[in-house]
Structures are given as C-alpha cells and as structure tokens.
Specification:
The chain is of the alpha/beta class. It has 14 helices and 19 strands. A hairpin with a 2-residue loop joins strand 1 and strand 2. The chain starts with a strand and ends in a 5-residue tail after the last strand. The mean pLDDT is 97. It binds guanine and fe (iii) ion.
Amino acid sequence: MKFVLKGNIIYATEKKKIITRKKSYVVCEDGICKGVFKELPIEYKQFKIIDYKDALIMPGFIDLHLHAPQYAFIGTKMDLELIEWLNNIAFKEESRYKSLKYAKRAYENFTHSLKNSVTTRACIFATRHVLSSIELMSQLEKSKLITYVGKVNMDQNGLEIIDEKNAEQSIEDTLLWLKKVNTFENTKPILTPRFIPSCSVDLLNGLKNIQSKFNLPVQSHLSENKKEINWVKELFPTSSFYGKVYDNFNLFGYNHQKHKTFKTIMAHCVHSSEKEIDLLKKNKVFVAHCPTSNINLNSGIAPIKKYLKLGLNVGLGSDVAAGNNLSMFEVIKCAIQVSKYYKHFIDANVESLSFEEAFYLATLGGGKFFNKVGTFKKGYEFDAVVINDKKLGLNNNISIRKRIERAIYLNLDNFALIDKYVRGEQINLYD
Ligand code: GUN
Ligand code: FE
C-alpha cells in the first residue's frame, strides 16, 4: 500500500518536542512512514494522495493498559477505592465472562468503541476465562488494531466466583489459551498475572516457566495503592519491595537464568520506592501511567516527570474501567492536570508535565513498547489518525500547536475522528 496523506501534520520526535507542519504531506509505503514533506518528493508523486484539507493528522495513540471486560460498567462505582472496587464491581462483572455468549456481546461493544477511538494500539487485560479471551482476541484481530491481550491469571484472594480453582488449573488454561491464539497477526498474547495478591507462589512459579519457554511479554499492576502494597508485604515479608516479588519469579523484564530481557508493562507505579524505581529502570520495564484511574480510585499520583527525567520507559494507559474514559485525549489532559497537583501538594521539586511531554507519552512513549511506533519519522510503522476540529465550531485561525491542544482538552476524540490508519491499513470506522 503506497499513499500520501495531506493536511496539517503533528508529531512528537522526542520528549519535549512536537513538530507541526501546515498543509504538508506524510508518506506511507508498505506500512512504513517515509517522512513528512512540505513539497512532495518526485519519487512519491505517483502515490495516491488523500487530501484532508485543513484537518489535523497525527500518529495513532497508544493505550498501554486497559481491561476489556470492565468496559461494560464504565463510569459506575467511581466512589470506591481499589480493593473495595475490585470486590464490589470488577470481580463480579468479570465473572460473567464465564459465559461465552455474554462475552461475545460485551466484547463486540468494547471492540467497536476502541476501533472508533483515536487508539491504534493497546495492551489489554481480558478475564481469566480461556474461551472468552480467545473471543476477544479474534474480534480485535478483525478490527485491525494492533494489540497485546492477556488471559488473566488469578488463583487466590478474589471472590469464589472469579478465582481460578488452583495454580495447576490456571497454568493448564494458560497453555491451552496460548495454543489457540498463535495464528493471529495483529493480536498477540501477553502473560497477565493480575497482581501479586491474586497469585499463589505455585502460580507465579508456573508463569515463570511459561515466560521462559515461550519468551512472552508480561503485564501486571504495581504499587498502585497503599493497602495493596501493605498486603504484598504481608504475603512476601522477606521481599524488600513489591516489584522484587515479580522479579524473583522472572516476571519483571528480566530472566535471571537466561540472562535475557523481555518486554514488561507495569501499570501505575504510584508509590514505588527508590529501589523499585531503580529496578524498573535497570530492567527497562514500561510504566503505564493511568492518571484517570488513579484519581477515580483515589490511589495517589505517580511522579511521572521524575520517571521521565530518570530515563524510565513511560507511556499512558486509560485503565478502563477504573479509568472512566477510553479516550487517550482524556488521559493526556488528566496526566498534565495530576502532574500539577503532584508538584503543588506532594513534592515541589518534581516539575509538572508540559503538553509536549504528555503528547509524547501517549504516542512515542508508549509506542516504544511496539518497537518503531508513535511518530512520523522515517522508518517508523505508519499509524495515523485524522481529526476534523472544525466540528468544534470555534475560530481555527490559530496555530496548529494550539489547535491540537484544544482538540485534546475539549476531548474531540471520536466526535471529530474522520479517518484512522494502522500499520498502513485504513480502518473502517463506524461499521
Ligand atoms: N489491581 C488488580 N486488578 C486491578 C484492576 O482490575 N484494576 C486496577 N486499577 N487495579 C487492579
Ligand atoms: Fe488496571
């Protein structure tokens, strides 16, 4: 597929830099970006040109952390804190995915919404059920979005209706699930221990073996809430910090036996100790910052600017449904807002995020998990979204930089999304 998009182009090239190009061209050849040009170079003149006139063209947005089954109750029970919220709503709703019929309907709704959002790639938790997780993956595969999806592992400390019978059953189910999903192109499996309190030692050992055998990436939750952290301390009193428990089972970005790194995402890291931060950095673990979730569940605020300055891998996550919105525009806005709170109420030495940094986190920052993704630099995979901010009805006679900031702050997400491309393929919106 060779084509050129014409319009007002916006992309981040590094943490602090957004490039804007008025009425310019961005070129895609076989799923790869060839760069952005003011005048179209002669070698691309034969390519089909799609002229979006005055619309805004930017890289697709990356959601590093969300829960597909929870979309069914998005926007409810937002007055609880983490453990109560899990026990009162999340686990109960997730138990319904035992029924494939229920899962099929609920996941159709979820996939439709994700497809019609500005998100082009995502890392997603399913539930612990094998058939429903396969169903979600086959729906996502058809959507052409690029995703990692995890069948969740959880064999203790939840509710009877949701916990797996034991570690053996959980591991057997995981192996069965892996066997059934290895032909998908766009949708890849990721190992997903729910969080440490949900996993017995036997289960963690079993996951360690699976990770090593299949060289799978891993996603989980880390240091989200103070009660949760104390709980992990009670369960593993000899571990010096929460992340060390994952690390002891080779589930924290590094296989100690094979001396090999692998991709890992840890959501939240709100209360990570200095030692935990050091290990996140050393093992190149991705921190999925989920600001909407953190304020809804009153978990606290993660010091994201500090993580950025230290050179950690950081991206953003909607954490639906603890996050109340699938829109990455909402998450970008909230990341800036909470970083200002952090500076004002928690630590004046930690600067707040600039708009440029938040935009970077939602594109190139999270995109790194998918390798060369998240910008229009030459050689990157071509994901793009096109936004018609004219729909706002405001005066557009302002800079492109201001227009994109306004589109994000006014949450124009699917209201103004007119086209979307993933790895060079156009997505059929609204079907
Ligand atoms: N920790 C364990 N499970 C969950 C979940 O579903 N959502 C959030 N936000 N935190 C968790
Ligand atoms: Fe989560």
